[in-house]
Amino acid sequence: MKLVTALIQPEKFEDIKIALENLGVDGMTVSEASGYGRQSGHTEIYRGKEYNVRLIPKVRLEILADDAQADDIVGVIIATANTGSPGDGKVWVSPVDEVVRVSTGERDLAAI
């Protein structure tokens, strides 16, 4: 099993969610996040004064998947989130040793 984690631009979330549902993903955790990478934030002008904004708003997706589906999930996220501009986000995959569904006690793939 794998945990696919992605940080994406908020305006891309709906498109990615639809693409993942079309792939057969039926569950994910979504949370708001903020951060910066190589782009180091951006400059905004408010009331005529420039401000450096270091933390950029992002959406964090976490999806539990079996090993075979994890690569497909990563591919869909990358294809849908990519604008070709800095700040498109990151995707990483982590191994998961065990998953337990709290309500039923089901374990591993049955719990996903």
From TrEMBL:
<dbReference type="InterPro" id="IPR015867">
    <property type="entry name" value="N-reg_PII/ATP_PRibTrfase_C"/>
</dbReference>
<dbReference type="Pfam" id="PF00543">
    <property type="entry name" value="P-II"/>
</dbReference>
<comment type="similarity">
    <text>Belongs to the P(II) protein family.</text>
</comment>
<dbReference type="InterPro" id="IPR011322">
    <property type="entry name" value="N-reg_PII-like_a/b"/>
</dbReference>
<protein>
    <submittedName>
        <fullName>P-II family nitrogen regulator</fullName>
    </submittedName>
</protein>
<dbReference type="InterPro" id="IPR002187">
    <property type="entry name" value="N-reg_PII"/>
</dbReference>
<dbReference type="InterPro" id="IPR017918">
    <property type="entry name" value="N-reg_PII_CS"/>
</dbReference>
